[in-house]
UniProtKB/TrEMBL annotation:
Protein localization: Cell membrane
Keywords: Antibiotic resistance, ATP-binding, Nucleotide-binding, Transport
Region (Disordered): 126-178, 402-439
Database matches in SUPFAM superfamilies: P-loop containing nucleoside triphosphate hydrolases
Protein family according to the UniProt entry: Belongs to the ABC transporter superfamily.
Name of the protein: ABC-2 type transport system ATP-binding protein
Organism: Streptomyces zagrosensis
Length: 439
């Protein structure tokens, strides 16, 4: 049933995204087609940041596109804010924001002109500063400016084919809160008044759109002259113009330097704390570990693990490593079982111990070293990380499918077998490389 959730704010449990048995198939039925999403189910609560992780070809983007209403599922059900995002897109799209992997901006517009253009296509945008609008008129003759003068041609909630109003889905089919209407495009700054005529009230965020993402000093620079990281910031600014209740972030910090990444994280935290529901996909496992309230790890179109970061990381043992002094061997250590060690490995004189009780193992080892009057060089004790849990899941699933140990490094940038390591946390198995087209 569609539209049976009352006020459209989600279900009675507080979920604003509900996915049940979701499937998406590319191509014909049978061996010639490819099923990228295979029975995925999860929910996202209001005000929660939910991260969707997975190896290349796992089905992340294919899943997110269904949540955004860009395609109809081959099977199963999706509800966003209580509505089917594909069949009831007019009810959903004014209330969501989408930051794509690439924005597809018009290269010749300046940053300021791009903001004003998109504000004119956004049905719930906060009011733009009148003085800026008076100082600089909106671009005319092309893009949204020309479309808006056409007087609302039935595009409300339908999307405009990208920030640049054209291009393919992943390179520009932006659909965050978009419409074509006969409104002026205004200017840059934001006020707390909101667009009362459109029923939009500001939520106490008066920061100018570009200051919010650190682009105020680049307002007069043409889009084509921006760096990759600056374009990502501009894309985020546009996704936030409509004050979305639900925000989809697809690789939001790709191309950003360390400082820009941290600033973006802080902004995303502020949005979540203010009540915005966020669904994040990212290659950076540190990013998910820092931001996510809960997450799901996709592998081969299915959810391999789901829960809070601590739930997933807690399934993996902690690690204690050190270098033995000359003349000492592993057999000289206290009985490892008494230290709570479940696994160990050696590489030359370096010893790595894995244990579910890091404090017990570290205490026993240090007491032994003190009594033996030896120094344990390069001593390192650390809890399990999301990266380790992620790689373990990928390896185990690969083994189950008969690929062998083809996934995952032992450290950043270190390759194991035929595995390929992408960015800060995405292994690629040999069996997945041919399926990247159906992401």
């Amino acid at each position: 049933m569609e539209g049976d959730e009352g006020d459209g704010s989600g279900d009675s449990t507080g979920s604003v995204i509900d996915v049940t048995g979701l499937r998406r198939r590319y191509g014909a039925a049978g061996e010639r087609g490819f099923e990228a999403v295979r029975g995925v189910s999860f929910s996202v609560r209001r005000g929660e940041l939910f991260a969707l992780l997975g190896t290349n070809g796992a089905g992340k983007t294919s899943t997110v596109e269904l949540l955004e209403g860009l395609a109809q599922p081959s099977g199963g059900q999706v509800r966003v804010l209580g509505h089917d995002p594909y069949r009831e897109r007019a009810a959903v799209r004014p209330r969501i924001g989408v930051m794509l992997q690439e924005g597809g901006f018009p290269a010749e517009l300046t940053v300021a002109e791009t903001i004003r253009m998109w504000a004119g296509c956004t049905s719930r945008a906060r009011e733009l500063d009148r003085s800026e609008g008076a100082r600089r008129a909106a671009p005319s003759g092309t893009g949204a400016g020309a479309a808006s003068r056409g007087g609302g041609s039935g595009f409300r909630g339908m999307g405009l084919g990208g920030h640049g109003l054209g291009g393919s889905r992943r390179k520009g089919d932006h659909l965050g809160n978009s419409r074509v209407a006969g409104r002026g495009l205004g200017g840059l700054g934001l006020t707390e008044r909101g667009l009362t005529g459109a029923g939009v009230v500001g939520r106490g965020r008066e920061m100018p759109a570009l200051e919010r993402v650190g682009l105020a000093e680049r307002r007069d620079v043409r889009v084509k002259q921006l760096s990759g990281g600056e374009r990502r910031r501009l894309d985020l600014a546009l996704a936030l113009l409509g004050e979305p209740e639900v925000l989809f972030l697809d690789e939001p910090t790709t191309g950003l330097d360390a400082e820009g990444r941290r600033e973006t994280w802080e902004l995303v935290r502020e949005l979540r704390d203010a009540g915005t529901t966020v669904l994040l996909t990212t290659h950076y496992l540190e990013e998910a570990e820092e931001l996510a309230d809960r997450l799901a790890i996709l592998h081969e179109g299915r959810i391999a693990a789901a829960g809070s970061v601590s739930d997933i990381v807690g399934q993996r043992p902690s690690q204690l490593s050190f270098r033995l002094p000359d003349g000492y061997f592993v057999g000289d250590l206290p009985p490892l079982s008494e230290l709570g060690v479940t696994e160990h490995e050696t590489a030359g004189r370096t010893v790595r111990l894995r244990t579910p009780d890091l404090q017990r193992a570290a205490t026993g080892l240090l007491l032994w070293a003190r009594d033996a009057r030896v120094e344990l060089a390069a001593l390192d004790a650390r809890s399990a990380s999301l990266e380790e849990a992620f790689l373990h899941i990928a390896r185990e699933r690969s083994r189950e499918q008969g690929w062998g140990s083809t996934v995952g490094p032992v450290g950043p940038g270190e390759h194991v077998g035929a595995g390929e390591y992408v960015g800060a946390g995405e292994p690629v198995s040999a069996g997945e490389r041919g399926e990247r087209g159906a992401r």
